[in-house]
């Protein structure tokens, strides 16, 4: 039998010999481990009754960050009817209503469809504020109105009345209509009759591009 | 008046700028009504009137057909100033016609009459009694004062 094998046997035997280091260790653990479990259990049972730290807290509504938006909708659609009972729809990429009390909706990416006597018309504006009760839209920035017959009205910062299909502004206006580029202090555009009235020092720049 | 106007060869297709206290554009009727010290500018031509209408056609692009001024119209160009009760600027035929108590002031000469036709092609300005042929004429007369430039010889 090679000596190495005997060597290994000797080591094993010394581990198993009674009264060795291993024996003492196991005896000690046999007592300590169950005791440890007992102590831990006791601690867990008793800890909630200890008075020194109050774990519970009161939620203070002022400090907590209240979400301002009441209703935030992606790609919303609002519908209504004009004075003649014809439907209109307002599609919004993003619509934000501060609270159900006030009927205002801040719209990003508005595309409204209205029915005129001679066909549909589309009103597009990147930013607008829709008053649901009055069915009026305050456009903040550019607006483009296109009608079925190719009529186009481009302007900025106007109010669109969806009941009577009027586009108005009295705070200075500029834009482009079929006849030309205009600026004025006030504008009233009546879409059904394709009539635009400009007041104040009104100016019109007509570029002739006919086939003559 | 035989001198040719500075409006000779005026481009009637040039852009037109109109300013007024009130502008009403009726796209359906292809017409725009201007009221309240209206000023129309096209290249060197300036036309002012209390009331004015522009008739146009929109076939792919805007073409002004006629500009009518009323209530006392003044037509100004670098070489003359003409005024009359009514004015009709026919863009198509490039003629400006002034009717009713017409005054033409060109340089030192001053001509009055019933009707003045300024031809924008050849720059001629023809004043006549006013009543066109075939209409009962009230004996419109043409009066004028001419100053002959001093002969410096």
TrEMBL record, chain A:
InterPro entries: LipoPS_assembly_LptC-rel, LptC. GO terms for molecular function: lipopolysaccharide transmembrane transporter activity. It comes from the Bacteria. GO terms for cellular component: plasma membrane. The chain crosses the membrane at residues 28-46. Coiled coil: none annotated. Keywords: Membrane, Transmembrane, Transmembrane helix. NCBIfam families: LptC_YrbK (TIGR04409). This is LPS export ABC transporter periplasmic protein LptC. It comes from Allosphingosinicella deserti.
């Amino acid at each position: 039998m090679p000596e190495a094998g005997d060597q290994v046997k000797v080591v094993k035997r010394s581990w198993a010999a009674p009264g060795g280091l291993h024996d003492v260790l196991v005896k000690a653990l046999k007592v300590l481990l169950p005791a440890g479990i007992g102590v831990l259990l006791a601690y867990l049972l008793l800890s909630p009754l200890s008075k020194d730290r109050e774990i519970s807290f009161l939620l203070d509504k002022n400090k907590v960050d209240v979400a301002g938006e009441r209703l935030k909708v992606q790609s919303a659609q609002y519908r209504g009817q004009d004075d003649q009972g014809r439907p209109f729809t307002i599609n919004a990429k993003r619509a934000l209503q501060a609270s159900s009390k006030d009927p205002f909706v801040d719209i990003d990416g508005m595309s409204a469809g209205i029915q005129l006597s001679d066909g549909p018309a589309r009103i597009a504006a990147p930013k607008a504020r829709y008053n649901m009760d009055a069915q009026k839209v305050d456009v903040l920035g550019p607006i483009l109105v296109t009608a079925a017959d190719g009529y186009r009205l481009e302007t900025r910062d106007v109010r669109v009345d969806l009941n009577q299909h009027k586009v108005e502004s009295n705070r200075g206006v500029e834009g482009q209509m079929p006849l030309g580029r205009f600026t004025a202090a006030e504008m009233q555009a009546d879409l059904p009759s394709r009539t635009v009235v400009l007041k104040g020092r009104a100016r019109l720049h007509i570029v002739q591009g006919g086939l003559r | 008046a035989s001198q040719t106007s500075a409006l000779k060869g005026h481009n009637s297709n040039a852009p037109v700028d109109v300013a007024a206290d009130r502008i009403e554009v009726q796209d359906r009727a292809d017409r725009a009504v201007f009221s309240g010290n209206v000023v129309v500018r096209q290249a060197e031509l300036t036309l002012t009137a209390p009331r004015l209408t522009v008739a146009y056609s929109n076939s792919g692009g805007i073409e002004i057909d006629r500009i009518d001024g009323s209530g006392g119209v003044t037509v100004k160009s670098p070489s003359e100033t003409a005024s009359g009760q009514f004015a009709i600027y026919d863009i198509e035929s490039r003629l400006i016609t002034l009717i009713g108590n017409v005054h033409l002031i060109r340089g030192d000469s001053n001509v009055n009459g019933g009707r003045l036709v300024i031809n924008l092609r050849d720059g001629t300005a023809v004043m006549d009694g006013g009543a066109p042929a075939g209409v009962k004429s009230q004996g419109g007369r043409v009066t004028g004062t001419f100053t002959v430039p001093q002969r410096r010889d």
